[in-house]
Amino acid sequence: MAGVSGCIKYSMFIFNFVFWLCGIVILALAIWVRVSDDTQEILSSEDLGSSPYIAVNLLIAVGAVIMVLGFLGCCGAIRESRCMLLLFFIGLLVILLLQVAAGILGAAFKPESDRILNETLYENTKLLSATDGSGKEFQQVIIGFQEEFKCCGLVNGAEDWGNNFQQYPKLCECQDAEELCTNYNGKRVYKEPCISFIKDLLAKNVIIVIGIAFGLAVVEILGLVFSMVLYCQIGSK
Ligand SMILES: *[C@@H]1O[C@H](CO)[C@@H](O)[C@H](O)[C@H]1NC(C)=O
User: Fold this and answer.
1) What's the sign of the alpha-carbon dihedral 87, 93, 99, 104?
2) pTM surpassing 0.85?
3) What stretches pass through the bilayer (predicted)?
């Protein structure tokens, strides 16, 4: 045992054991969601496109990677296997580099994605006034959003709803303070269009994702350092 720090060895073992368990749980849940009949129906019936499938598949991949890395890390530490520790180090390094690359790409394309988001929202405004049923789901989503955020329409307020304004009885109904409301077709409706609220909400979620990514990066760097130290200590035994 001389030369190998028990502290590093056992913290490596415990941390990676936990990761390994987390990986198994994520993998098991994701596979269960993917194959179970009930969720199959929900995933495909709601007309959400293919995004839930992509999310579940991504979760399966993430779970598998965490499980394999956790296994390499915890077995590599406890058995003092340089080969496993090296694989663990390389795997973790690749993930960290991918994360950094994604961060750089994200920052570089931020103006572009802001523009695309803005244009998509302007484009989708048409769906609110569509009477042929094509925008039904989008309309329901926006109605829920309007009630929660006390706003109306997407970009121009109540007029975005066009002829549909009469179809939904309580659409945009404003019972708040005067300064939040305006009159439209003889009804009191919320004045503020929803576009800025939607953008704010997305921006908040992006910040959460960035925060998680930074937290992960710190853990990954710790893992890199620990596995490297252990690898060297085993070598010099
Ligand atoms: C969003 O797009 C619309 C229409 O394309 C444009 O008039 C508006 O200035 C854009 N707003 C921002 C903040 O880019």
Assistant:
1) negative
2) no
3) 12-33, 53-78, 85-109, 206-231
